[in-house]
């Protein structure tokens, strides 16, 4: 599993910059960049802090199983242009 890209995906989905995430967990933005590019290792403690920021448990972070509806949603979303994906995310944020 590629941990770095998954963290970046969570960060982008939360409309958060690397600098903002770094400030929330008290590390440098360059370390966030290195994590997201898998060019450094991170401790379980740091990963737990990152997961806390995004409201995701460690088990959810590492769970690669999706329900059929989740798979369909993911497939549909991935087929959209990136701009439309962000529009959809903003819409969904308004629903919750």
Quick take:
This protein is mostly helical. The chain has helices at 3-13, 18-25, 29-36, 44-54, 58-62, 68-79, 82-95.
Number of helices: 7
Helix/strand order, N-terminal first: HHHHHHH
Termini separation (Å)?
A: 29 Å
On the 0-100 scale, what is the average pLDDT? 88
- Based on CA inertia axes, which overall geometry fits? globular
Helical percent range?
A: over 70%
Biggest sheet character: none
Percentage beta strand: under 5%
Folded structure, characterized:
It is a single chain. Helix 2 (about 20-25) packs across helix 3. This protein has about 100 residues and is an all-alpha fold. The protein is built from 7 helices and no strands.
Name a few traits of the molecule.
96 residues; mainly alpha; globular
Secondary structure elements and pairings:
Layout: H1 3-13, H2 18-25, H3 29-36, H4 44-54, H5 58-62, H6 68-79, H7 82-95
